[in-house]
């Protein structure tokens, strides 16, 4: 691609060089897997009979072995609004597979946590590691050697990364991701945010808060703010793993059904074509495109953890230096709540992913020449799907329909992307800039150190934080407690900032994909457990956080101090079962995965 931006080219080449040995090992493994299977005809008769015993309509076709048999790996449950529509998918998908002479079976299911339900609760300590459990569940589903292609049904926070990680271990066959779309927009986002802060200040009660939240999260479909779930869908488009334009079409609509049908037909079409295997579609260029899309749209900070883990599963080494350098070149061209006023439905109506992809390609900021599941290149994703009568078609997007939400790369909201690396004598961390006022890019103040988000909230309620302060929350890393999202911190810190104080957060934990206006250094490595620098900070130490210079430091001499010791226990709601994940997890920058670390990946 002749007009590729120098920075994008340079970072891609560095990733290729750093990944050369591990990528070769991965591709060699996938080639060996392709050569030995899947071939249902090579299964023993008893094995094969078990595999199609319950497939009453499709038994003759599977038995004959002349047509592709698709694996449906589903994360359906009807508590999680984004995944509730998936309940209807498998019966429909089987019919659509038969239309083109193929078959489909539900190969297995994966866990599907809702971080919105577990936010601030003990169960959130299982959330990040549920990604490894999802990857392992995907591997179990695919272990039966019955399938020629993978239809991957998942949307939300850890679910898509987990599906990618598991499916890539079967990367010798093709895989297509199939979303279900966002719920209709509820109350205005500013109103929702206002009620949350009023509740944090004690000015409204639980009944008013619950009424507000219920008006926001109110029906089947993905939550409409631009957090991790919707960032997942953006990335699947940027990597070419969707049917073009599938990300944000609403559920239970004729267009959504047509896109899912097209995904099944396309998966059948490419099932016997090695060039469309996931090992080929998920290459270095595809992962760079995912990072570029994340930065250009101000996506979730959680992907600073997920992207390295996903890439490692394909033998690709990607780190925060790569993300930060790309951020220096990629402009912010979208503002979607919490970084703007409109949600993903407004984003989609204004031009959505088709507009974003087109702008990035025109500016030379994305790799056009990736291998997509659709068969062309990334330019297929610079259009929007529509129904011409009953026929699925694609058309040009045109100019932005709302320049408060989408702008051209030549006139962006800000010149660089939404995420920066900060580092110094307190470690390395991520700073999400896309929703932070540039006047707050630098915060220097005495710190107050906490070991839990509950303690922060209690201190806020007691009026102890009404001053310029850097709030440090430690022992929140993957090895300490599974790295839960620190959702409870957002309203009180926002209140303090609105009162005129200089406020920042420094933590080895995660903030929500919906984290917003308060400056924050998150995912700090090395984590406090094991003696990381945050374990040596004390109340009153002056901490400086600066996104402009990329610094995270203190003037205090930490060398002679004994590190603090974690005091909380992690039992109840199954946390004791996840001790092996905590013990084996590697750093956030490596992906915070016990599974990958144990597997030598």
UniProtKB/TrEMBL annotation:
| Catalytic activity from the UniProt record | 6-phospho-D-gluconate = 2-dehydro-3-deoxy-6-phospho-D-gluconate + H2O
- Principal EC category: lyase
Q: Where does [4Fe-4S] cluster bind?
A: 156, 223
Give the UniProt entry's GO cellular component terms.
Answer: cytosol
Kindly tell me the pathway this chain contributes to: Carbohydrate metabolism; Entner-Doudoroff pathway
| Stated role | Catalyzes the dehydration of 6-phospho-D-gluconate to 2-dehydro-3-deoxy-6-phospho-D-gluconate.
What NCBIfam families does this protein map onto? Answer: edd
List the protein's name: Phosphogluconate dehydratase
Q: Which organism is it from?
A: Tsuneonella dongtanensis
Traced from the root, the source organism's taxonomic lineage reads: Bacteria, Pseudomonadati, Pseudomonadota, Alphaproteobacteria, Sphingomonadales
Gene label: edd
């Amino acid at each position: 691609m002749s007009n590729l931006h120098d920075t994008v080219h340079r970072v891609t080449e560095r990733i290729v060089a750093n990944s050369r040995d591990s990528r070769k090992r991965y591709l060699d493994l996938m080639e060996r897997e392709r050569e030995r299977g899947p071939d249902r005809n090579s299964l023993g008769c008893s094995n094969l009979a078990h595999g199609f015993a319950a497939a009453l309509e499709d038994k003759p076709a599977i038995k004959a072995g002349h047509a592709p048999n698709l694996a449906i790996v589903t994360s359906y449950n009807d508590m999680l609004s984004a995944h509730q529509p998936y309940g209807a998918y498998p019966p429909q998908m089987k019919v659509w597979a038969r239309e083109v002479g193929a078959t489909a079976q539900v190969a297995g299911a994966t866990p599907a946590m809702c971080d919105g339900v577990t936010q601030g609760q003990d169960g959130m300590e299982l959330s990040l590691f549920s990604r490894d459990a999802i990857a392992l569940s995907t591997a179990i589903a695919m272990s039966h050697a019955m399938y020629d292609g993978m239809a991957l049904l998942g949307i939300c926070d850890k679910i898509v990364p987990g599906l990618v990680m598991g499916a890539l271990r079967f990367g010798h066959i093709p895989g297509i991701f199939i979303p279900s779309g966002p719920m209709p927009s509820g109350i205005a986002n500013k109103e929702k945010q206002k009620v949350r802060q009023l509740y944090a200040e004690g000015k409204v009660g639980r009944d008013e808060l619950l009424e507000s939240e219920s008006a926001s999260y109110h029906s089947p479909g993905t939550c409409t703010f631009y957090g991790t779930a919707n960032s997942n869908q953006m990335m699947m488009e940027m990597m070419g793993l969707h049917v073009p334009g599938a990300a944000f079409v609403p559920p239970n609509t004729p267009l959504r059904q047509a896109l899912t049908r097209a995904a099944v037909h396309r998966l059948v079409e490419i099932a016997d074509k090695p060039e469309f295997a996931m090992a080929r579609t998920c290459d270095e260029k595809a992962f760079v495109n995912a990072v570029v899309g994340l930065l250009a749209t101000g996506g979730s900070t959680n992907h600073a953890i997920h992207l390295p883990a996903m890439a490692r599963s394909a033998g690709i080494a990607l780190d925060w230096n790569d993300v930060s350098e790309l951020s220096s070149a990629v402009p912010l061209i979208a503002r979607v709540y919490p970084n703007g006023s409109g949600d993903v439905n407004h984003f989609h109506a204004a031009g959505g992913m088709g507009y974003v992809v087109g702008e990035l390609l025109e500016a030379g900021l994305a790799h056009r020449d990736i291998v997509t599941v659709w068969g062309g290149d990334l330019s297929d994703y610079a259009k929007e799907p529509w129904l011409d009568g009953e026929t699925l078609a694609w058309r040009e997007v045109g100019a932005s329909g709302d320049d408060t939400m989408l702008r051209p790369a030549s006139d962006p909201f800000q010149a660089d992307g939404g995420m920066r690396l900060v580092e110094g004598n307190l470690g390395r961390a991520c700073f999400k800039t896309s929703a932070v006022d540039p006047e707050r890019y630098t915060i220097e103040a005495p710190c107050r150190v906490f070991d839990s988000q509950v303690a922060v909230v209690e201190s806020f309620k007691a009026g102890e934080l009404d001053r310029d302060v850097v709030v440090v929350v430690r022992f929140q890393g993957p090895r300490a407690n599974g790295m839960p999202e620190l959702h409870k911190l957002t309203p009180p810190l926002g209140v303090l900032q609105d009162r005129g104080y200089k406020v920042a957060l420094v933590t080895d934990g995660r903030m929500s994909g919906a984290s917003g206006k308060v400056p924050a250094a998150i995912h700090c490595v090395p984590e406090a457990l094991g003696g990381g620098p945050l374990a040596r900070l004390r109340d009153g130490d002056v901490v400086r956080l600066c996104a402009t210079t990329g610094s995270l430091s203190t003037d205090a001499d930490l060398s002679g101090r004994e590190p603090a010791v974690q005091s909380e226990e992690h039992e109840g709601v199954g946390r004791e079962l996840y001790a092996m994940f905590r013990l084996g997890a590697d750093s956030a920058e490596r992906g915070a995965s016990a599974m990958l670390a144990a597997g030598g990946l």
